[in-house]
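Researcher: Please translate sequence to structure tokens.
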Amino acid sequence: MMTLAEFLAWEETQPGRHEFVRGEVFAMVRARRVHGIVSGNVFATLRQQLRGTPCMAFTESMKLRVADDVLFYPDVFVTCDPADLRTDVLFRAPTVVVEVLSERTQSYDRGQKFTWYRRLASLQEYLLVDPDTRELQLFRRGADGLFTLHDLTGMPQVELASIGCSLPADEIFDGLDPLVQGTLPGV
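Model: Translation complete:
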């Protein structure tokens, strides 16, 4: 079992990324093409819409400290916290977290990982995106502190009310359909 400090020092020497939960280290699953496309689309759209606001979007290369002994790499997250906007290593106060699902990770992202994320007082919205089924599920924190599921599958856009952003579904999934042979000049 490692401490968080030991983990951070160890991970700096590793070629891949790892998540850390209560002393245990978990290697990150290598992402598929569709995962990279969707997370990139979400990040790009949020980054553009957040310009000039006190919030900023980050990608999966940034560490999010969820508890004293829990650290994740969300696919995309937005923070509006001034301390987060000054940090170089560990973010602590996301307003929105987006996870792009895969067959191997979706149970964890929907279950145990969401259980950890819900403990963050700053978190207002948790968006799950399934690139294979094109499902969009948004969990939004209500005034009572509880998260409610909003199934937005088939809807034209996802409204992230906590940060005043809209993610058009066609932009989220843009580029997933493979190019048809002969549609590019010279192909």
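Researcher: Any highlights?
Model: The mean pLDDT is 90.
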